[in-house]
Design a protein that fits this description.
Shape of chain A: globular
Largest interface: A-B, 28 and 37 residues
Helix content of chain A: under 10%
Distance between the termini of chain B: 15 Å
Radius of gyration of chain B: 34 Å
Structural class of chain B: alpha+beta
Subcellular location (chain A): Cytoplasm, Cytoskeleton
Strand order of the largest sheet of chain A: 1-2-5-8-13-16-19-22-23
Helix content of chain B: 10-25%
Oligomer: heterodimer
Low-confidence stretches of chain A: none
CATH class of chain A: Mainly Beta
Protein name (chain A): Dynactin subunit 5
Number of helices of chain A: 2
Largest sheet of chain B: 6 strands, antiparallel
Keywords (chain A): Cytoplasm, Cytoskeleton
Distance between the termini of chain A: 14 Å
InterPro entries (chain A): DCTN5 (IPR047125), Trimer_LpxA-like_sf (IPR011004)
Order of helices and strands of chain A: EEEEEEHEEEEEEEEEEEEEEEEEH
Family (chain A): Belongs to the dynactin subunits 5/6 family. Dynactin subunit 5 subfamily.
């Protein structure tokens, strides 16, 4: 993770996002970044998969449709070659995508595919994980490497999840909450990264 | 082989340290610093597994000033909730409904994936899966479908009329679609029966019941049988005619009655109030003789099952994990001839999960208490050991001379036997007082392959932790203030010096440990390498001392108390540093 990329590999925005030039972001106007988020090379975010049918509650609130496809909180870390893809399903007889929401301090491991409906805060997703469509991952969840979270699964807070299909294999201990913080990791990437603390 | 990340496990003092050390040690290592050498904690002792924990798993009792591990805390359940729908289940429901979710949360019996209610007409469900006899005519039926393995409840012949309250519907359907009595209905039916048949004609009623059950096409299932048996034995126990000194004596409390006399005698002799009565009772009790009383004749003819096994393949039978994840007493009509086919599995309602608060077992103070609400992740009380005792992180140190220049040592690399390696241990002080740390490690690691261990700086101080804001303000000149406080000058001039700290920062200190890994060469007659015997683990005794403001707290573990309101505290524990695997051969 603390690999030092060559200068200029990342685009750093005013809100502190570090987006790799080699990341593939489709439909950028539909991707919301909360700030201080790292998007590594070869990451793909499918912002083009917007909701084609507006739900009755959101369309009534205003004239402009809410087209957010992917919403990401602060201090998220999308590792190399991971993919965020909004989930889609049949809704009242027609196929539509639904937004993918992601909280703060979410780590997505390399080559993982996320199609969750929502991911809470302080979530660690390992490498080569597949999170199925409309899965809901709550706060402080650790998804171990190679896990396949089946569609529609709900993972409650403080779970450690592994397996194919995923099952809850343990609980995050009380002392393990701080390990989910990604502030330090955020500093270690970018165009002029700081070395990781020992 | 998977690379081994260095780890630090801490031994909770709750385990009997004397028995964990070398045999015939009476003194505990925590108290006897003097004979440390021959009293080493052996991380490879079979029992050590149960007392070693990563720092995150440990809690800390502020009143006992002691580490508490998951084994030595008392847990109290704060909230029950379903892990799928995240609804809280009141504990009163728990008693009546059991420990599973009674809403529509089910797990696939084949793969434990979540099941979702799907209308059968929708294209995603394979039309081949539909039971041909039923689904064609009905308009809107629903089934439970696993989105992971595509299992559908139609495979076991279960369909639902409504998309909601699946749990209640499922309780009425047996595999294959036949209806099934719920506990309530069973009770009602029984009441009905007892009304119909008088006490005089029990046998007749039983016969009628049996007749009605068979006519209704209803075999007695496991739950009915159990309920029948329970009722029967209860009535036997309560039956005044069954024995002459049973509960009947409670009715007539005559002093002359021998039964009440024995009862009073029992009161005074104490304890065995029920035993003699029960014994005398047992002799008078009879066993169930009718189906109404719970008698079930075993059906020993299993030829149909055998032929079914012949027709099916291995994948049609349920694995033991699948059977174990089934809720009890829900599947089969009765135990006789219970086969383990996939068709007998049922959707399993989610087991409830809990939020628990934790107490110190000694002083009963709460050391961890989550908010009761399911959705919140905050804790009211959370005394984790990580905020009281220093964390130890391990890094392989690459000295220019020793390991050869150029190739940087990567953590998880195999260690060359008999070649000295240096590891950097970084102790980080979480408390706001400066710590005095004393380390002790055996010169040779315990076990069959002793590696030589030298802690180059066994005694040092760590400066106090400061506020987060101070750190943030200092962040800009971190390069100048934090990193330059090395003992030696620049990186290339680093020399491993005995008794010197390698590097120190705001609230951390790095020291060097030199290890000469043992050779794993097996001599003649030696057993083969056991699992993980190539892992280089060094036990280390950590003693930390610090001073606190004496806040009227009398409980003290410190050796001496200063006059000027300062109290000396001390904490000592064993920990195990896993450094890496030694190269074999």
């Amino acid at each position: 993770m603390s690999r030092r990329p060559p200068r200029g590999e990342y685009i750093e925005t005013d809100t502190g996002n570090k987006v790799a030039r080699k990341a593939t972001l489709v439909g950028t106007q539909n991707i919301m970044l909360g700030g201080k988020t790292v998007i590594q090379p070869e990451v793909m975010i499918r912002g083009d998969l917007i909701r084609s049918i507006q739900s009755s509650s959101s369309s009534s609130s205003g004239g402009t449709p809410n087209n957010t496809a992917v919403a990401i909180g602060r201090y998220c870390f999308l590792s190399r070659a991971s993919c965020l893809r909004p989930p889609g399903r049949l809704y009242k007889g027609a196929f539509t995508y639904m937004p993918l929401r992601m909280g703060d301090h979410v780590f997505v491991g390399p080559s993982s595919v996320i199609q969750a409906a929502s991911i809470g805060n302080h979530v660690h997703i390992g490498a080569n994980v597949v999170v199925g469509e409309f899965a809901i991952i709550k706060d402080y969840v650790r998804v171990l490497d190679e896990t396949i979270v089946p569609p529609n699964m709900v993972i409650p807070s403080f779970s450690i999840v592994a397996g194919q299909p995923a099952r809850v294999i343990g609980e995050v201990p009380e002392g393990g909450h701080e390990a989910f913080e990604l502030r330090e990791l955020y500093k270690t990437v970018g165009n002029n990264p700081q070395p990781a603390l020992s | 082989m998977a690379p081994l990340n260095p780890y630090t496990y801490i031994q909770c003092p709750c385990s009997d340290s004397a028995s964990l050390g070398r045999p015939s040690d009476a003194t505990s290592p925590t108290s006897a610093e003097a004979d440390d050498e021959d009293n080493t904690f052996d991380p490879r002792a079979p029992r050590a597994n149960f007392s070693l924990y990563p720092l995150e798993y440990l809690l800390y009792c502020e009143d006992c000033h002691q580490i508490r591990c998951p084994r030595c805390i008392a847990e109290e359940i704060a909230t029950y909730f379903c892990p799928s729908c995240l609804f809280e289940v009141p504990s009163s429901n728990l008693k009546s409904e059991g420990n599973r979710c009674t809403r529509s949360c089910f797990q696939c019996p084949i793969c434990i994936g979540p099941l979702s209610v799907t209308s059968i007409e929708t294209p995603p469900s394979d039309p081949n899966l539909l039971a041909p006899d039923r689904a064609a005519t009905q308009h809107s039926t629903y089934s439970l479908i696993c989105s992971y393995c595509n299992w559908s409840s139609t495979e076991i012949g279960i369909q639902f009329d409504k998309p909601n309250s699946i749990h209640a519907q499922l309780a009425k359907i047996r595999n294959g679609g036949a209806s099934r009595l719920t506990a309530k209905e069973r009770k009602e039916r029984r009441k009905e029966l007892s009304h119909r048949g008088g006490e005089a004609a029990v046998a007749a009623a039983a016969a009628a019941a049996a007749a009605s059950e068979t006519s209704g096409g209803q075999d007695m299932d496991l739950e009915t049988q159990f309920a029948n048996l329970k009722l029967f034995y209860n009535s036997q126990l309560a039956d005044p005619n069954a024995g002459d000194n049973g509960f009947s004596s409670l009715g007539d409390l005559g002093f002359s009655s021998p039964s009440s006399l024995s009862r009073i005698m029992n009161l005074y002799t104490g304890g065995k109030l029920h035993d003699p009565r029960a014994k005398s009772k047992l002799g008078a009790m009879r066993e169930a003789i009718t189906a109404d009383e719970g008698l079930l004749e075993p059906d020993l003819d299993e030829s149909s099952l055998i032929s079914q096994l012949h027709r099916s393949d291995f994948l049609d039978t349920a694995s033991s994990t699948q059977v174990c994840s089934q809720p009890p007493n829900l599947g089969e009509p009765h135990l006789h001839g219970a086969a383990r086919f996939n068709s007998s599995l049922r959707p399993a309602p989610y087991l409830l999960r809990t939020k628990r608060s934790k107490r110190c077992p000694v002083c009963r103070h709460i050391i961890s208490k989550p908010e009761a609400k399911v959705q919140t992740t905050r804790f009211r009380i959370r005394l984790v050991a990580g905020s009281y005792i220093p964390s130890i992180s391990i890094r392989r140190l690459n000295l220019p001379g020793s390991n050869g220049p150029g190739a940087p040592a990567i953590l998880g690399d195999l260690l060359e036997p008999l070649k000295p390696v240096h590891f950097l241990l970084t102790f980080k002080n979480p408390i706001f007082e400066s710590l005095k740390v004393t380390l002790g490690a055996p010169a040779k690691t315990p076990g069959r392959f002793p590696s030589k261990v030298t802690v180059l700086c066994p005694q040092f101080d760590i400066d106090a932790n400061t506020d987060v804001w101070d750190e943030a303000l200092k962040d800009n000149d971190r390069e100048s203030s934090g990193r330059s406080r090395r003992r030696a000058g620049t990186e290339s001039q680093f020399q491993v010096e005995v008794g010197k700290i390698w590097e120190r920062g705001r609230n951390w200190v790095s020291i060097v440990v030199e290890v000469v890994p043992a050779s794993l060469k097996l001599e003649q007659g030696q057993d083969l390498l056991k699992e993980d015997e190539d892992v280089l683990e060094i036990p280390m005794f950590v003693r930390i001392e610090w001073e606190v403001e004496n806040g009227g707290d009398d409980a003290t573990t410190g050796s001496g108390r200063d006059k000027d309101q300062k109290e000396k505290r001390e904490l000592a524990y064993w920990c195990v540093l896993g450094l890496g695997r030694i190269k074999q051969g």
